[in-house]
Design goal:
The complex is a heterodimer. By secondary structure, chain A is mostly helical. Helix content of chain A is about 70%, strand content about 0%. In chain A, about 30% of the residues are buried. Chain B has 3 domains: about 60 residues; about 35 residues; about 240 residues, Thrombin, subunit H. Chain B is built from 10 helices and 12 strands. Chain B is rod-shaped. Classes of the chains: A mainly alpha, B alpha+beta.
Chain lengths: ~190, ~350
């Protein structure tokens, strides 16, 4: 690992500004700075490095979303916050795997972050549904949905890309695709 | 208005593509028509989710890319809580260790069983100790007695006591390896003796005075007790742990010697030093109940004495052809009614220093 990056742990405000500004570099510095801490937590509590990666990335996503949503208040050190999220997520994972022995070996102080983790889990469920709905939707619908709703491409572009002769046909196609996607999404339990 | 058209309108509205007029009209419609309002909200939510999902996927890809740059393996090595190597060894190999330990234990027990280690080896131990002690004494004794040796350069002494007119008993270990032996009486006169009979297994030796200047002793005033003495009995010994006889008062503490298997010895609590070896052990009636065996001192204050019954047996075992006449042991104890001081005065003539050259 790059020692320079390791030693230059970003300040908490640098991280927050970096996330708000979509700074790739700050995200990287954040990621590299606290991964060892989480790896230590997970591998010393019945997990492996892949678990650590999953848990850590989820925690970064929680932080990221919270910062992006504008409701992140730095009431403690960012390090403690990340540790707490990971700890909570890992406990949840352990109990799901029936690997939880009722005891966790801690390396840091931590905060109660149950609400955040719950919120994150709810969103995760929605995203998983969306992922499988999109998979089931198939082409060309999937690409049309992505182009229009995610990448904000105009109907004109979409027409050209898929070779629709007139915009109405494309709109009708897009409408049908959206209806099917909604159906697939809401069908899932 | 069909669903399709409604969707188009909603999207137009949400994307801010409406003119001012259209916008006001549509917002009015939303307020009046809850159904349309719901449709707008629902669409907003769903497309929002779709966007967020895409963002999530993108973020995950970014994080994965960063993760690729980390040397997780090295980090892991560093961060594992390393238990001590003993614990690790045990965790990884505890089944093997257990099997090995069991086998080892079995082998040790078998070997001990086969070689008879479970039999009592104390006697061997004691013998060894005797030898060590003897060496010790042989080394130390001459130095200790240098002042009083003069022309009389004996290397080691013990104590002996008379059993008849010219026979003296002592420990076999006292006279072991001797070139010549002399006994010295309370007056300081020395007489040459020879070993008449020896029973090393019981550490008993019987000496015969062969010196022509020796005048035969009267019959010793003490008798030899064949029966066992009782625990707690007051006992004493007289011995030449120095140039003059020294009294060692004490008590009989056990009918068995070193352990319960050792019925040859009494255990006694008496201040004893090596010169006492071979001296008589008296009870307070003046009966000889044993031969002090100072050589077997094992722990502080615990000493041993060979029971007198073994002495009587030894006397009986003396080959008759080496005796000019039968050994007549005193049958009448003339000490019984006397105080200890008077007993000792009478005993003095029958206790000898055994000098080994």
């Amino acid at each position: 690992m790059n020692k320079d990056l390791k030693h230059s742990a970003p300040t908490d405000s640098e991280v927050i500004l970096g996330i708000l500004n979509n700074s790739e570099n700050e995200l990287k510095r954040l990621y590299i700075a606290y991964f060892p801490m989480v790896l230590q937590l997970i591998i010393n509590n019945n997990g492996n490095e892949d678990d650590a990666k999953d848990i850590y990335q989820e925690a970064i996503i929680v932080l990221y979303n919270k910062v992006k949503a504008g409701d992140f208040e730095l009431s403690s050190k960012l390090k403690t916050y990340i540790y707490s999220i990971c700890r909570r997520l890992w406990l949840k994972r352990l109990s799901q795997l029936n690997r939880y022995g009722g005891d966790i070996r801690d390396f840091q102080e931590y905060l109660p972050v149950d609400d955040e983790v719950e919120l994150h889990n709810d969103r995760d469920i929605q995203f998983n549904k969306m992922e499988s709905a999109l998979q089931l939707l198939g082409e060309p619908c999937k690409t049309i949905m992505e182009d229009f709703y995610i990448y904000n491409r105009s109907m004109q572009e979409i027409c050209e890309r898929f070779g629709y002769t007139n915009a109405d046909n494309a709109k009708t196609q897009k409408y049908k695709c959206l209806q099917r996607l909604k159906k697939l999404f809401f069908q899932q339990k | 208005m069909s669903d399709n058209q409604l969707l188009e309108v909603i999207e137009k509205y949400l994307n801010g593509e409406m003119s001012q007029d259209e916008r006001i009209k549509f917002e009015l419609l939303r307020k009046e028509n809850a159904d349309i309002d719901n449709r707008v909200k629902e669409h907003l939510q769903f497309t929002g989710l779709l966007k967020q999902y895409a963002e999530r996927v993108e973020l995950e890809n970014r994080l994965n890319a960063i993760h690729q740059e980390i040397d997780v393996h090295t980090l892991k090595e560093d961060l594992m809580a390393h238990p001590s190597w003993v614990v690790q060894l045990w965790r990884h190999h505890h089944s093997k260790i257990s099997v090995a330990a069991t086998v080892a234990l079995f082998v040790v027990v078998s070997v001990m069983f086969l070689t008879g280690s479970f039999n009592n080896n104390n006697s061997k131990y004691v013998e060894l100790k005797r030898k060590v002690d003897k060496l010790d004494q042989r080394i130390n004794r001459p130095v200790k007695n240098k002042k009083d040796v003069g022309a009389d350069r004996y290397s080691f002494n013990g104590t002996g006591f008379a059993i008849s007119s010219n026979l003296i008993v002592t420990n076999a270990h006292v006279i072991e390896g001797a070139n010549s032996i002399k006994v010295q009486n309370a007056d300081g006169d020395s007489f040459k003796v020879e070993v008449l009979y020896s029973e090393p297994q019981n550490d008993i030796a019987i000496l015969k005075v062969i010196d022509t200047t020796f005048t035969s002793l009267n019959t010793p005033p003490y008798t030899f007790k064949r029966s066992e003495s009782d625990l707690g009995e007051d006992v004493y010994t007289l011995g030449y742990s120095s140039d003059t006889p020294v009294l060692g008062p004490g008590v009989l503490t056990s009918a068995n010697g070193i352990n319960s298997n050792d019925s040859v010895h009494y255990r006694i609590s008496i201040p004893i030093i090596p010169g006492n070896s071979g001296g008589p052990l008296f009870d307070n009636k003046g009966n000889v109940i044993g031969i002090v065996n100072a050589n077997q001192a094992q722990t502080e204050g615990a000493h041993f004495a060979i029971k007198s019954s073994y002495l009587l047996d030894a006397i009986r075992h003396i080959p008759t052809d080496s005796l000019t006449h039968r050994v007549n042991l005193n049958k009448k104890n003339t000490l019984a009614g006397l105080s200890r001081t008077q007993q000792i005065k009478k005993l003095n003539n029958y206790i000898f220093m055994v000098k080994v050259y």
